[in-house]
Design goal:
The complex is a heterodimer of chains A (255) and B (506). Chain A contains 8 helices and 10 strands. Chain A has 255 residues and is of the alpha/beta class. Chain A is globular and about 65 Å long. Chain B has 506 residues and is of the alpha+beta class. Chain B has helices spanning 26-36, 96-106, 186-192, 196-204, 211-226, 232-260, 264-285, 305-329, 333-339, 347-353, 357-361, 369-372, 393-417, 471-481, 490-497, 501-505, and strands at residues 8-10, 15-17, 43-53, 56-65, 70-78, 84-86, 109-111, 146-150, 162-168, 171-178, 437-444, 449-456, 462-468. The longest helix of chain B has 29 residues, at 232-260. The chains are: A alpha/beta (255), B alpha+beta (506).
């Protein structure tokens, strides 16, 4: 009986990723994009984006990763103009950092001066998070679940999702925040003892994404809270999330 | 009573002129709808909805004829919204959720409906005074009973739903599930969005665990209305994607089921096994859930020879590890004890509720679109769905194991028939849709049939878009299978169904 179990364990082999900070994703993964100076019909390109993530700013094109659905169709239609790289580290605590401008090889980082003092001192060795899905499509939810599986094993850093907001150090929101979930989200947030983190995971949470203009959303709560971390993606890759959390709470992981 | 059949037949993926849908007097409409569903093995209700029409509404019923492999479509023109209709539900319960939806959206009254409660508190519901916080729960007037409320936020990383258990001691007498928390107004957005790409992204976002299945139902709808023919190779690739989604989600659910019965080895191993499958999907199209892969008329990510051999080796490696773990799981007494005979739903109840997909298959109904209304590659093979008979947690677990094996075989065969050098066409971003047309596209997602219905106006613009996730039918089955069992068996029951909140709430 016990021997069977050992044989199964042996056949499964080692599944964990040794170092999550240097793991690479396949080239085809859509992470931070690059925009070249190639001349294209700007208005057409802007109109092509399904989530209005592309805009012209100071005579330069920009992609807002807080709005981008990472569908990648723009790079297929305008292959010489836009190229998504496999750079998955794109979590930041400054919303403006999610704008990627034409001609730049953007690195998206945590801004140290924006981190609240107590966050690092209290949460740098253990962090329990409560996830709230407020209209999420179950993609980010599954990826948050995957963060704790044997492959990514976020638990090795003392970071885990917890069942109750009372046991949590912060709230992770997925989904565009539907009107029907708005009150429940606020109640869950207020149930978390202070100091507490508030993290937006996925394009839907950050900007509403493809649902941005839906009359079924109610996002005014966001203007009342301090947002500690924006994690872009559709859905967010576990590596993006884990690295973002580590960089936010631990000095030694900051780039 | 008229004996003649008054409906129009439509193949899965076919399109007709909207004006060709027969419009019946309500009494005829009602009798025909009930009569068609008399034999559970022969037909089921795929969708029933209302669309606003001059001076009232058109009620459209889509009945799946599972023997003749056709959808039977007929309608009734309801002249004014204040007219009350005799409900179909009092004669056949399968209509209950659809009549509730029609009532919620348009305030049409259904007389003698036993349970005419809100479905999802849609933003455009007819009665705005109804609030999600005040859902009218069923309440036992008894001093011996107590109620347990759970949600909308649950103790895990899952979507929100509110569950109210009415218990006598530890025994659940009644469970009522209130949904709607995830409502994002997708059907409205489908009409308001301007481009086909936006609508495709929207379809992918209905529920990401079935992103490829819902996207496929959407793009095939546009292809039906736009009369766009797709290459043989592309249709194979789409079906491979669909089976990969099924394989990944079934494996993930087996992990969840092991977790809920505290079987740590199964939990860890099945969790790890889902990873190579979704990572292959990522190597194929850049996204672990297949977002970006399915597009109208073509794809940006053809299945290259390298990908095919990659997939073959992923599957071989997966299969041996998966079978070893599954065989162990389904033979270990501590798991069997927690799966066997728990949360039974009877075949009669499944038939009455009109359940589809996995829930129907766990009691022996062959309700599988790949079998009854085949699309793409399934048209060319004699697909035979896997079924169980016991309708309990064990059946829902074991069916996943069997279906996962079947998916592996299907993918391997499809890789073989996929032509190596064939060019695959590029996506079409502006489909010209045929005016005044109606189409039904059903796709067998891993939970069951996903049915998208689209209508165009006289200018070839989308006039109505109706999405039905299999969970619409199946949530009621979870409620019923909780009756007279211990409340502590709820988590494993819920996981064994793993129904969609976002697919239901839209």
């Amino acid at each position: 009986m016990f021997l069977d179990d050992l044989i199964i364990v042996k056949h499964q082999g080692k599944q964990f990723i040794k170092d999550l900070t240097i793991a690479t994703l396949p080239e085809i993964f859509r992470g931070i994009p690059q925009i070249s100076d190639e001349p294209v019909n700007i208005q057409e390109l802007i109109g092509f984006c399904p989530t209005d993530a592309i805009s012209e700013n100071k005579n330069k094109l920009a992609i807002d990763l807080g709005k981008c659905a990472f569908c990648g169709d723009c790079q297929m239609q305008y292959p010489n103009k836009i190229k998504f790289t496999n750079q998955y580290k794109m979590a930041t605590n400054n919303r403006d950092n999610l704008l990627v401008y034409q001609g730049e090889s953007k690195e998206i980082k945590i801004e140290e001066n924006l981190i609240r003092q107590e966050i690092q001192s209290i949460f740098n060795r253990s962090l329990k998070l409560r996830q709230v899905s407020a209209g999420g499509d179950n993609g980010n939810e599954l990826e948050m679940g995957a963060c704790g599986n044997v492959n990514f094993d976020m638990g090795r850093f003392g970071i885990e999702f917890t069942a109750s907001p009372r046991h949590a150090d912060g709230i992770v929101v997925t989904g565009p925040i539907t009107e029907n979930m708005a009150d429940a989200l606020q109640i869950a947030f207020e149930a978390v003892p202070e100091p507490r983190l508030f993290i937006l995971v996925g394009v839907d949470a950050i900007s509403g994404g493809i649902f941005a203009e839906s009359p079924a959303l109610k996002r005014d709560f966001l203007s009342k809270v301090h947002i500690d971390l924006y994690v872009p993606g559709n859905p967010v890759h576990p590596l993006t999330f884990i690295n973002g959390i580590l960089e936010l709470t631990r000095q030694k992981y900051r780039r | 009573m008229k004996a003649t059949n008054q409906y129009i037949k439509l193949k899965n993926g076919g399109q007709i002129h909207t004006a060709d849908i027969p419009v019946l007097p309500y009494n005829d409409f009602r009798i025909q709808a009930i009569k068609l569903l008399l034999d559970f093995d022969k037909a089921h209700c795929s969708n029933y909805f209302a669309i606003p029409k001059e001076n009232g509404f058109q009620l459209i019923a889509i009945i799946a004829d599972d023997v003749d492999r056709e959808f039977l479509i007929f309608s009734h023109h309801l002249l004014s919204s204040d007219i009350a209709l005799e409900s179909l539900t009092q004669d056949h319960f399968a209509f209950h959720i659809f009549e509730r939806e029609i009532h919620e959206n348009f305030n049409i009254q259904f007389l003698n409906h036993p349970w005419l409660k809100p479905v999802r508190f849609a933003h455009n519901r007819a009665d705005q005074s109804k609030q999600i916080a005040n859902y009218p729960f069923y309440h036992f007037n008894s001093t011996e009973m107590h109620e347990v409320s759970v949600g909308p936020i649950h103790a895990g990383i899952i979507e929100p739903g509110h569950f109210k258990f009415s218990c006598h001691g530890e025994t659940v007498k009644h469970l009522e599930i209130q949904l709607g928390w995830q409502h994002r107004g997708i059907e409205t957005l489908m009409l308001h969005k301007k481009t086909d790409l936006q609508r495709t992204i929207l379809a992918e976002s209905i529920t990401a665990d079935s992103a490829m299945a819902h996207a496929l139902a959407f793009v095939t709808s546009m292809e039906s209305l736009g009369q766009i023919k797709i290459d043989y190779n592309l249709s194979i690739e789409r079906n491979i994607a669909l089976e990969l989604e099924r394989l990944a989600m079934h494996t993930g659910d087996l992990c969840g089921m092991c977790t809920d019965v505290a079987y740590q080895l199964g939990s860890s191993v099945f969790n790890a096994l889902r990873t190579p499958i979704i990572n292959f999907t990522q190597r194929w199209c850049g996204n672990r859930f297949g977002k970006g892969l399915i597009r109208i008329g073509g794809t940006h990510y053809p299945l290259s020879n390298d990908l095919k051999s990659d997939l073959n080796s992923v599957l071989s490696e997966f299969e041996s590890r998966f079978v070893e773990m599954a065989e162990k799981t389904f033979n270990i007494p501590s798991v069997i004890k927690r799966f066997d005979g728990i949360g039974i739903i009877s075949k009669t109840n499944v038939g009455l509720l009109g359940c589809v997909g996995m829930v129907a298959k766990t009691v022996g109904f062959k309700r599988d679109i790949r079998y009854s209304h085949p699309f793409g590659y399934y048209n060319t093979i004699n697909f035979e769905p896997k079924t169980c008979i016991s309708g309990d947690v064990m059946a829902r677990g074991f069916l996943r194991y069997q279906e996962a094996l079947q998916s592996i075989q299907l993918i391997k065969t499809m890789i073989d028939v996929h032509q190596n050098s064939a060019e695959v066409s590029k996506p079409i971003y502006k489909a010209d849709l045929k005016p005044n047309s109606f189409c039904v596209n059903a796709i067998e997602g891993w939970r069951g049939e996903i049915v998208h219905t689209a209508l165009t106006d006289e200018n070839g613009q989308l006039a109505w878009y109706k999405i039905k996730d299999p969970s619409m039918h199946n949530w009621k089955a979870l409620e019923l299978s909780l009756r007279n069992i211990e409340i502590s068996d709820f988590p494993i029951n819920n996981k064994s169904y793993d129904l969609s909140y976002s697919g239901h709430d839209l």
